[in-house]
């Protein structure tokens, strides 16, 4: 497939998954709007249809909660092909949503789409309307997920991380009980190979947490302290910090002084706090288990994704070395878990496979430090994966086997982004 054909194919994927004002990640497996999928997919649309790109983010933010949270799934239209659906979440919203959030990439996406817009009048209008909402979401994070003001926010559910079954959560997740969860039927394993998906044991815990939060009325002033699962993820925090920084820059240029000042302060505090997650031993950042008060020595992509934030130059250089090291033990960068670790599983979701969206964000961060050689390797591996195995949800980093759902929106959007 040459590059023009690849772009044509990618646009077809986006168009097939387009539901008018939002896209679904893929038909069947994920029939609703997902938060970070939408923001990243908008980057793809922006290359050939800017109004459609803006609509994607507008729709997402139309469903923001009054407290500022932007939910992880918006259940626009009924579909019983996904579990857990709206009745399990019971958040009581007119258009149902889940009650947790996802990595806040929207701030980054808005700045990127704005800055390269051909229609700058539209971009200016959209950015002015969207920035206050995104800023309120960022403030919600630091208020509700960092009540002690450490500069780092905690995730209360693995689904919030976007890296649902990462090895990072294993120990903390083991402490989540499963009693009283009741019977349920998973739907994901009817659409995708069960060997590529989280286990039944993990699903019971996912659902236990949902039931717990629901019993607290989805009140975000209570959830952080009440949750037995409270993990600080360097990748997630890096995305939030980067988004705050992007909002600060763009808001300043648009004359939105207060948003600019507050966003800059949040980003600066976050960057300083990231230092507490650094591991000299592994040469990357680590997750921190806030319930137990200790770092989690797990060699996952979360600690590499930190490159997306404006971290110090010497940390970027160390992360480049870490990625080079990973490149010696697999054929396609970047594996979501170190292939040398005993927990590595090249097919199972976030326990080894390569995800193009993560590659894109890491490479984008490395660009700020001018790390050309490794960026070319990462981007080249993305293209080889798609050429070999198509627009899958994720791929085995050793064999390139396509995994999870097929015909995947954000995978396609990343190809459009990379090839422009
Ligand atoms: C739960 C939609 C989402 C992504 C996540 C990915 C997966 C959902 C699931 O799919 O999670 O949110 O049911 O498996 O882990 O990152 O946003 O593509």
Automatic annotation (TrEMBL):
GO molecular function, one term: Glc3Man9GlcNAc2 oligosaccharide glucosidase activity
InterPro entries given in the database record: 6-hairpin_glycosidase_sf, 6hp_glycosidase-like_sf, Glycoside_hydrolase_63, MGH1-like_GH
GO terms classed as biological process: oligosaccharide metabolic process; protein N-linked glycosylation
UniProt superkingdom: Bacteria
Keywords: Glycosidase, Hydrolase
A matching Pfam family: MGH1-like_GH
Coiled-coil blocks: none
Domain Mannosylglycerate hydrolase MGH1-like glycoside hydrolase residue range list: 30-411
Family in the record: Belongs to the glycosyl hydrolase 63 family.
Protein name: Trehalase
């Amino acid at each position: 497939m040459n590059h023009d054909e690849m772009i044509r194919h990618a646009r077809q994927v986006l168009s097939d998954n387009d539901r008018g004002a939002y896209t679904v990640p893929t038909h069947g497996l994920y029939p609703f709007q997902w938060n970070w999928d939408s923001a990243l997919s908008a980057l793809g649309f922006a290359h050939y249809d800017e109004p459609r790109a803006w609509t994607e983010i507008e729709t997402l933010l139309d469903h923001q909660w009054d407290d500022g949270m932007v939910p992880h799934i918006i259940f626009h239209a009924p579909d019983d092909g996904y579990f857990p659906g709206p009745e399990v979440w019971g958040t009581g919203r007119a258009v149902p949503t889940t009650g947790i959030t996802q990595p806040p990439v929207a701030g980054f996406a808005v700045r990127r789409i704005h800055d390269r817009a051909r229609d700058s009048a539209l971009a200016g209008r959209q950015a002015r309307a969207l920035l206050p909402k995104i800023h309120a979401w960022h403030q919600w994070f630091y208020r509700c997920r960092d009540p002690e003001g450490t500069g780092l926010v905690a995730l209360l559910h693995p689904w919030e991380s976007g890296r649902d079954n990462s090895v990072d959560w294993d120990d903390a997740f083991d402490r989540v009980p499963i009693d009283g969860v009741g019977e349920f039927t998973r739907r994901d394993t009817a659409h995708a190979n069960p060997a590529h998906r989280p286990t039944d044991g993990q699903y019971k815990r996912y659902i236990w947490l949902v039931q717990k939060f629901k019993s607290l009325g989805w009140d975000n002033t209570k959830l952080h302290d009440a949750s037995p699962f409270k993990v600080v993820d360097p990748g997630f925090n890096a995305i939030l910090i980067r988004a705050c920084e992007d909002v600060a820059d763009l808001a300043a240029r648009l004359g939105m002084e207060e948003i600019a000042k507050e966003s800059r302060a949040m980003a600066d505090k976050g960057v300083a706090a990231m230092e507490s997650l650094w591991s000299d031993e592994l040469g990357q950042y680590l997750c921190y288990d806030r319930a137990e008060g200790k770092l989690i020595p797990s060699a996952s992509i979360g600690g590499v994704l930190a490159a997306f934030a404006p971290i110090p130059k010497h940390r970027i250089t160390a992360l480049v070395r870490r990625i080079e090291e990973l490149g010696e033990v697999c054929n396609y960068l970047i594996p979501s878990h170190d292939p040398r670790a005993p927990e590595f599983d090249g097919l199972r979701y976030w326990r080894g496979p390569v995800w193009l969206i993560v590659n894109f964000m890491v490479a984008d961060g490395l660009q700020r430090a001018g790390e050309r050689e490794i960026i070319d390797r990462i981007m080249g591996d993305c293209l080889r994966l798609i050429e070999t195995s198509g627009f899958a949800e994720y791929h085995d980093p050793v064999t390139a086997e396509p995994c999870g759902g097929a015909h995947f929106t954000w995978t396609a959007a990343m190809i459009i982004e990379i090839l422009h």
